[in-house]
Amino acid sequence: MEKNESKGLAQESHALVVEDVISRSLRWGVVISAIIIAVGLVIYLITGDSGYPAGFFPTSILQVLKDVVHFKPFALIDLGLLLLIATPIFRVAASIIAFLFDGDRPYVLITTYVLAMLILSLLLGKAE
Length: 128
Fold this sequence. Notes:
This protein is mainly α.
């Protein structure tokens, strides 16, 4: 009986550590994305220039990354928003790994399906 109790305590401890790591990553993802968005907004408010011609916005991740290097305000804001979107997606991916280590196959399958739907929705999304 003691062996089962110690195994249960070890699994519970592992679950708490995983939840703590995931919780911290979510928190830091939101904080970092907010800082990046704020920097882009401050640069925009100071310069009054978005970094793009009127009516143009970057529509690809590659374009955003290329323009972030030049500190274009709208590119920085877009990068912050992309990080904010990626944060919960990272949480879902981390959950798959945690469920794999726990040997919880039904949750691995369900969470993998959720991750696939999130990625599919991002790939099929269209900006015009």
